[in-house]
Amino acid sequence: MPFDVADKHVLVVGAGRSGRAAAELLVAHGARVTLADTRTYLEDANHLHDLGVSLDLGPHQPERFAAADLLVVSPGVPFDQPAVAAARRAGRPIIGEIELASRWLAGQVIAITGTKGKSTTTTLTSRMLAEAGVDAPAGGNLGTALSRQVAQSTAASLHVVEVSSFQLEATDTFHPWIAVLLNLSADHLDRHESLDAYGAAKARIFANQTPDDWAVVNADDPRALAIARAGRARRFDFGLDHPPADGVTVQDGAIVRRDGGASAPVLPLSAVKLPGRHLLTDVLAATAVGCLAGVPPAAMRRAVETFNGLEHALEHVLDIDGVRFVNDSKATNIVAARHAIESFDRGVVAIMGGRFKGGRFEDLRDAVRSHARAVVAIGEAAPLVEAALAPVVPVERASSMDDAVQRAYARAMPDGVVLLAPACASFDMFVDYVERGRTFKDAARRLVQARAR
């Protein structure tokens, strides 16, 4: 039965990027839409009113939530939020923006999730498909909300969608043709009650797949493999240490496709411009999707050769007198920070800290011991960073990003790497990881200017 919201009262919770997109999409489909947000003022309130969206600003009112016909929750809104929980007790259906948009897409979905690497893999996959002449917009948790792609979606479209655990736990019928699970490690344990609960949210990417669909999984990640085994889709995996019989790996200086164990080259490793073993794994994942989607090797090679990575993902910022500054603000968990540190042979001075999301900083000791000279700790988690890593390398605390950059530079001279790899969320000091990364880059530039005086 077609999904119909005409003349229904739909309450959208959260007036961020995805919430606003969902509200506008619902209005276009004839719903009576209320956009609820705990903020008491929105700059574009008049614009939203002109579109036909009612606003419910300030503290959430459980009775208003429970009276709606449908709730659409933004990713930052947990289901146990009191007003949302009241609606659930009242029997109101609750879905997320990704779920909402997917019900109206005309094209197929390629969904990509994992603890680390989602944005890189999503962007590169979209570029590969575009090089082959396919309409393949990237979106979801990355960039454009999926709801904004509905109007332009055609039967020939392939929507490459980055999906987080928060988005997946609010899905019901979401059905990717190709579902990618890059990896799974402890993250967001400030919201998910356990690693198992976090994994269960990620597993929803496979929930509605059939034997006509594809699951693409990291063969080097035991947790990811365990989750994928419960799915019904065909498998086409990728891996460096455990080359799959059917999938993508590296062999004899090339990225190769394996079918039944027989290998065929797709593109040379020399085409890959991204640093770090973990980013090479993301390239393998994108290549696996490209193979399944019928992208010619030449088109995949063009996409890879011209892709120098994303802002805030092992992004080279500048060099000062032999010291390299690298921004990996997207390294928001322990495993991501470890991969970032291990991307350099030696001389790393890592800036770490922020709002702790779970995991063990002690798990970084081996990487720090082998690759780092020192650590500069910032934010709320600074005491945890210091307690865990001071037995291995010198740890200094910094009061601001400028202070951290200056301290790290002094430690990194004359030939080291100042690496922002926080292993934490940014919300204690910054709006998001983007602001944190750009603040780091600005601080490095100010250091250049100060030394030039």
Biggest sheet strand order reads 7-8-6-9-10-11
The number of domains: 3
Termini separation: 70 Å
Overall shape: globular
CATH topological fold name of the largest domain: UDP-N-acetylmuramoyl-L-alanine:D-glutamate ligase
Plain-language structure description:
- With 453 residues, the protein is of the alpha/beta class.
- It folds into three domains: 84 residues, NAD(P)-binding Rossmann-like Domain (Rossmann fold); 207 residues, UDP-N-acetylmuramoyl-L-alanine:D-glutamate ligase, CATH 3.40.1190; 134 residues, Mur ligase, C-terminal domain (Protein-Tyrosine Phosphatase, Chain A, Alpha-Beta Complex), CATH 3.90.190.20.
- Helix content is 34%, strand content 22%.
- The protein contains 16 helices and 21 strands.
- The protein has a six-stranded parallel sheet, with helices on both faces. It has a six-stranded mixed sheet with strand order 16-17-21-18-19-20, sandwiched between helices.
- A hairpin with a 2-residue loop joins β13 and β14.
- The mean pLDDT is 94.
